Amino acid sequence: MAEAHQAVAFQFTVSPDGIDLQLCHEALRQIYLSGLHSWKKRFIRFKNGVMTGVYPGSPGGFMVVVVSYMSYNQYRRLDPSMGLIAKLGQHMPISRYMSTDSQRIVGGVLVGTGLWVTIIMIMRNVLKSLLSWHGWMHARHGSVSWSTRLWLFTLERPRTGMSSVNNDYLESVRPLMEDERYERMEGLTKDFEKNLGPRLQWYLKLKSWWASNYVSDWWEEYIYLRGRGPIMVNSNYYAMDFLYVFPTSIQAARAGNAIHAIMLYRRKLDRIYLLANKVPLCSAQWERMFNTNRVPGLETDVLQHVNDSKHIAVYHKGRFFKVWMFYDGRLLLPREIEQQMERILADSSEPLPGEEKLAALTAGDRTPWAKARETYFGRGKNKNSLDAIEKAAFFVTLDDTEQRFEEDNPVKSLDSYAKSLLHGKCYDRWFDKSFNLIVFKNGTMGLNAEHSWADAPIIGHLWEHVLSMDPLKLGYTEEGHCCGEPHPNLPGPQRLSWDVPAECQEVIQSSLTVARNLADDVDSHIFPFIDFGKGLIKKCRTSPDAFIQIALQLAHYRDKKKFCLTYEASMTRLFREGRTETVRSCTLETCAFVRAMIGDETVSLLKLAAEKHQNMYRLAMTGEGIDRHLFCLYVVSKYLGEDSPFLKEVLSDPWRLSTSQTPLQQVELFDLVRHPEYVSSGGGFGPVADDGYGVSYIIVGENLINFHISSKHSSPETDSHRFGANIRQAMLDILDLFQLEKKTK
Questions:
Q1: Cα of 273 vs its chain's centroid, Å
Q2: For 355-384, what is each residue's pLDDT tens digit?
Q3: Which has the closest alpha carbon to 622: 142, 157, 271, 103?
Q4: CA 231 to CA 360: how far, in whole Å?
Q5: How far apart are CA 582 and CA 93, in angstroms?
Q6: Under CATH, domain 524-622+654-744 is a member of which superfamily?
Q7: Quick one: fold of 230-519?
Q8: How far apart are CA 650 and CA 630, in angstroms?
Q9: Is 708 a catalytic residue?
Q10: What tens digit of pLDDT does each residue of 527-559 get?
Q11: Contact between residue 456 and residue 680 where contact means Cβ atoms under 8 Å apart
């Protein structure tokens, strides 16, 4: 194999004169450049490790402390260490070979170092205490208390109290239960709190003292990795391109700029140049963004992460390719990446038997994929090709369809675009990769991301970087190509080779059938809400997120004539290794407002509902939510072999309305005042319950909110387009309550 020959830096040539064994200078050169690149990265990581290891101190601070201490000791002829320097000097192993002055210098350096370390530890603990304070989260919007100002100027672990969790749970389900069922639930809660609960709580507290986060590892394993159903639609989610801007219609060019921008982001991530934020958030989720793959197992999957990967995997018309991202020791430029994509698009070779639909294995049930992977992909060319995909930096699909927002057909075009990103043809995305970059034939693009390694804001941060780099900083020529020139000597992409037996092809077809049934059942509806945005909502003196969540409750009640358990995701990255917590948006206050809207319109109830929602959101972000705690108690009960009717009932209730806001995190990258057309469509996810809705929304600028709605065609209770119409009307009706036009006059 060619890779093996290059690895040992020798080339064999058979000729009439015999075998000519010659040194391959190009191979040695590439090995040298690869080693140089690797050592540069190691040095940068070592340097960053030193800098972060002594944070909030610095090597420069060390020199200042030691030199200042020594100077004070030398010129003042005073010993602030009260004799410690002299004692240290006397006990130096080489003191007999040193003069008294030398001993004094060495002792001074040691004492100065100790003083520097002491200062760092004091500063670190003070800073930790400061960053653990979350009182600013509970301040009224638009006002800043003196305590918050003092905290900002000077710039506890999550709650594990069981009693308050149970009380909050009962409050959250009260509007959803009839009196008889609620009284029964109260009895189960009291029994749990008196008997089994304290025992489970003790184990949970023990874990909270030992582990860096008492939730996240169990959440990752039991919610994501142990799931045996398809991750396509059920877990993976998507992100869309610009809504109104189409930088180029050349597929290879769009891929060239996007891939280069993604690789630049990875470089910044490797060098720890990212993630600066005024609010201290844990950055652990970024660690597995690249070079990561979800490997299927018989009972549980495993996240496989390699430290570095110098290539990407590309799929086009049933063929897989390996494309190196570096040449001559440097990252390929956008035009050079475009050149590689052009070569793939121009390749007219046919897929090998079983190759075209191979990725359907990642779209179906996990156990058949695990068995097939072990049986058919454990050795030979199949293993090498699979490794090339699973160990790639990320996966790219050069899609042969066209997707785009069309002004004359906005509903159908956006719905088709969303479904293509969410599941495609069910065999043209590698759903196990941390994320897939999908570039369509007409130059539109998007992402499909696997969920277990991180949450949506993490991939959203990358996507904002890519969208801001692509048209504005990297740019295109007048013809639509990437800027720059093709490389005359750039080696082409490597076509991956497979030997897929007939038995494996049957497994592939079976997985494809499961995936297609799931994909065909998805009812997606995406619509830009352009009537108003957060600008007008703020004039109502109401949180935009609370406003939208209450509108969703009103829309759902009109849609189904009933309330339901509602999930809103809230991040918990204020804590180390934090993931998410649930905001139970269907509250007593919100239900009271909805009933009033159905009968008698009132603003006061809306204010109470909005204030309640905001307070619950703050509690979730600051570790005071209830659902992750209850989940962990349930896990402990399973480990102990204890059966809890209370916990079983709590965790069996379906989330028939699952919602999430896509935050715009890097607002400085987009000047929406001067360029309002550069707005993102946001992203979405599949329905969580068979008879429920999934709703994602992004608040863009002051005048636009994009909604992504999903449900299942098979449910007679749901209709995504009907629900979208109800959301739009609910938003308008709630705004009318404030009579802003009359107030303006």
A1: 18
A2: 999 999 999 999 999 999 999 998 889 999
A3: 157
A4: 11
A5: 60
A6: Chloramphenicol acetyltransferase-like domain (3.30.559.10)
A7: Chloramphenicol Acetyltransferase (3.30.559)
A8: 8
A9: no
A10: 999 999 999 998 888 889 999 999 999 999 999
A11: no
